[in-house]
């Protein structure tokens, strides 16, 4: 096969770092080329250079054999390069259709040719199997649809090289499958795809070849069929990686935490948790598997005092907790890693030291008489935790927003684990993290378990549920539809329960609508 | 009761409301241009004032009020350009830049008035734009007395509202302008020049405010007075917000504020202390903004300078 695109010795420096260090990469026409690497390895920078958003300091780009200069997105678009960004580039109050045509509008003397354009968008949508409601406003459609819209945008501009920057990070497993279907379809029609991810499983499933970046350098390019999980992981991280979490068998003790018959409504008043009962013992991890949006978040928020429970009991060591407020609950030595660390877990504009005391900021030793902060205690606390949890860079005065996702999550974990919680809730604890950071967080969670904490783990990643949990419960439409020890669980069994399990069989294999759509 | 209603709501009052609303309508259209592109334009007041002054000055020296109108437009555009350079290129806080323009405009017009005419407070009279009567419409009962006879700028303002609506929602440039105000990076990734778009939008914004000012000095009246805009730029800004950043919404809000102004003149005739009565339009403005506006979401990128890397 011919190379459609060649990057030669691309170098890009940012103040203090070399984001891309002499990277040379060949992309063959019609292939799906995975580009993997940990966060901060330079994948997105490289693609932003290709798309003209950044300009390389050194190096050359050859497109279809010709040396090409791309300094503006407009030029990339004109050369048939399309990019779907990790954070979608969509104008939310505009309609789907307006977003598709934006910048390349079909026009008659300056007026938008709405009718002609709408036909064209509908045709593309049909041809490539990209289901979107063209008339809806972007803010009203699901994440999966938004992504299909982004792909549609690129195709509308006649892209034949499509860059997908971590497209699966925001998708449910079902939506990911659907995306892969679309990618295969595109490939059949001749589109070349560059697929950025840090999930090795996805690389192996969908790509033809894979290139690995680490700290701004190209480690190597392999044919996907000739490589495997451990090899790719090692190439990404630079050392051997434990893909399985090492842990002893749990030694559960006394019952610490229980929920019985819990019912919760979300902020809109829709009932999302419909009678859940759970029990967790000392030194045990209970994993909640389930497609996102089946009430897990509302359950967790009711336990942590962020939402009111309509009905039911929540107890910690026999004492009832339901409908205490978040601060009161925090004081009961309950640790919480929220699913959205930016919204709930951290104050991004504060520095590390202040984030390390959030929730405990009114307690000694961090405050003294007359509500005055004890700076020395705050610093000492942060310094110790930063070292213990290997937060990089170890600068406690630095704003949290400037840290990578993995290090931000370490800060949350450090704070929540530092108070020796009796009960710990970990909600999507490794979302968006790279392999190295995932490995670290997993070790810490197991460590907490071994110290005797009862742990509730909520995750949409089946791998994570299977490797950390001692017992697994599956949540579907606000109910627990199955519970089993980890030894009896496997992906197939859990997957079928997650999609409604028995109910599905009864309807003779009807597809069950799940997820966010 | 009925008598009172007729006293306040009749053709004379409504016609006055339309006249009072006209500078607000023009200036709020300017506000929409800037803010839809993501740039706060709190300098509308100052741009209006400079427009009013330049309109008068040009009309005085040429004897041509139409040239005065063009002068006001260009002067407003120039002020818009200054605001664009400060807030788009140099990324100065947009509220600060706009406030500076207001202070500058207040000072420079007073200074030039004294320097050129050697008078304080009020300029000499100049020729103004014509009052026209629309045939047919002026014969329709009810409508005729309200809409039939006005200064030509009143009709221009109404036409401009329709044009701005068409521009924003039917043309390619309108779509691009809106996208730049909501999500400039998204616009950039599809090849739209964010900086150029914002520059043009803010310049047009200033030009519109200049027209709004010109209405005061060479259409409604025929002279310039110190601080003659008297906060109308800010009320136009309020009308824009009240109208949820849409041309017809801002038109409606401007008419409401214009009506409050017209009613205030009537109340004065009734012998209610004028200082009290003059508060009415402003109180109505505040009540409208606080109470009826509901959830108006401004363009998302408003006030944020765009950085490329």
CATH class of the largest domain in chain A: Alpha Beta
Q: What general form of chain A does the structure show?
A: globular
- CATH fold assignment of chain B: ABC transporter involved in vitamin B12 uptake, BtuC
Poorly predicted sequence stretches spanning 5 or more consecutive residues of chain B:
none
As a percent range, the share of strand residues of chain B is under 5%
Main structural class of chain B: mainly alpha
Tertiary shape of chain B: globular
> Uncertain spans of chain A, ≥5 residues at pLDDT below 50?
503-517
* Percentage beta strand of chain A: 25-35%
Compute the average pLDDT of chain B.
92
Question: What's the total number of strands of chain B?
Answer: 2
Strand order of the largest sheet of chain A: 6-9-10-3-11-12
What CATH architecture label of the largest domain in chain A applies?
A: 3-Layer(aba) Sandwich
If strands are numbered along the chain, what order do they take across the biggest sheet of chain B?
Answer: 1-2
Helix content range of the residues of chain A, please?
A: 25-40%
- Percent in helix of chain B: over 70%
- Biggest pleated-sheet summary of chain A: 6 strands, mixed
Largest β sheet strand count, sense and barrel closure of chain B:
2 strands, antiparallel
Rg of Cα set of chain B: 19 Å
Record field, number of beta strands of chain A:
22
